[in-house]
Amino acid sequence: MTDGGSGGGSTDRGMAGIGTQAVAEGCGWKTVAEGDGNYPSVWIFKNINADLLPTCGQEIGTLKNIENLEQGIRVIASRAYSSSGKEMTVRDALNSAIDEEMSADPKVFLMGEEVGEYQGAYKITKGLLLKYGPDRVVDTPITEAGFTGIGVGAAYYGLKPVVEFMTINFSLQAIDHIINSAAKSNYMSTGQISVPIVFRGPNGAAAGVGAQHSHCYAAWYASCPGLKVLAPYSSEDARGLLKAAIRDPDPVVFLENELLYGESFPVSVEALDSNFFLPIGKAKIEREGKDVTITAFSKMVGYVLEAAEILAKEGISAEVINLRSIRPLDRSTIYDSVRKTNRLVTVEEGFSQHGIGAEICASVVEEYFDYLDAPVERIAGADVPMPYAANLERMALPQVEDIVRAAKRTCYRSNSTTATA
């Protein structure tokens, strides 16, 4: 937690930035202003459900209590999955999250191509039209710019649209509305306009769908102030993060992965509660280790966990960090891990140049260079439009063996006998 100093914080929803302390409380929520270490005059306002943070006490206002609050968030974000055996697909996790938020708040509505009668291109919105009707589950023409603009306008007037893109690649048709209309309005209006909207859909490669449908645009959106960018891996991630995104007062780009929709993951009893959510801006340590830190998000988390199993057989203990939140980025969890392991590998399926890994590596080198015992390693997609041919598509994307080799390089181990998944 960084104290932003007294350089005059910005205002948010009419609340003064008064230092590193809580500035509003009500209805079981606490809004906490946190100074950004890179930009001391900028404040991040986090909405935290106080009921989920019993270690914080009733009154929050001092730096110490804020530190307790952050520790409480860390406990929630890093706890292990339930061992009860209950499983849920990512598809069902997303569906239930939307359903529960629509049920709880009549201002929430869904719009996009085929979200209603067809029940979603990937069946994420199955059953919602029948339950909530065409006024709240709105089928749109094939015009991303058109329906995104309508969604942003609705958010200006206090509604909470969830805008679905058939692929985030097609969101580029509407990027003017996402960035110039949604992301900038709160700042340009000095906090008078909130834009509570979620832009969601599959991001990154599927299988054999060509260059127009296959690229990861996490880095594009994560570079834009005013947006929050989330990328879930598991069912618990998907459910908790989407509920948080819908409740958030700011525009959120929610990056799913088509190949994860049918995957099942264990879910805890807490995650099935209708009040469950995961805090935006907090990563999750999926696997603890001591030799090398490996960061990833979305589908690549699974690849990294597979690589960690292979590395363990060769005596290398990898700490796996599921970023969950791309913007804001949980730098403190990454820094803490690097201080322990002294090595860093980043993994993403997007382009290497100007990518998420580039930002993480630069940040670690700037802040914790003296802790590094080896050069940082970046694993990313090939710098080409995605090929259509299956063999070339595989070559264009990171594979488990690539991660194993990079981790071994940082540990100065020979790759001559590297196992493959």
Number of strands: 19
Shape: globular
Tally of helical segments = 13
Name the helicity range: 25-40%
Rounded Rg: 21 Å
Query: Which CATH class of the largest domain is shown?
Result: Alpha Beta
Distance between the terminal alpha carbons, to the nearest Å? 39 Å
Quaternary arrangement of the chains shown? single chain
Structural class: alpha/beta
Beta-strand content bin: 15-25%
Q: Characterize the largest beta sheet: strand count, sense, and whether it forms a barrel.
A: 7 strands, mixed
User: What's the overall average pLDDT, rounded?
Assistant: 83
List the helices and strands and how they pair.
Elements: E1 11-12, E2 15-16, E3 22-26, E4 29-35, E5 43-49, H1 63-78, E6 87-89, H2 90-104, E7 108-112, H3 128-132, E8 137-139, H4 144-156, E9 160-164, H5 175-183, H6 185-188, E10 198-202, H7 218-222, E11 228-230, H8 235-247, E12 252-256, E13 264-266, E14 284-287, E15 292-296, H9 300-313, E16 318-322, E17 325-327, H10 331-341, E18 344-351, H11 356-368, E19 377-381, H12 390-396, H13 400-410
Parallel strand pairs: 7-8, 7-9, 9-10, 10-12, 11-12, 15-16, 15-18, 18-19
Antiparallel strand pairs: 1-2, 3-4, 4-5, 6-13, 11-17, 14-16
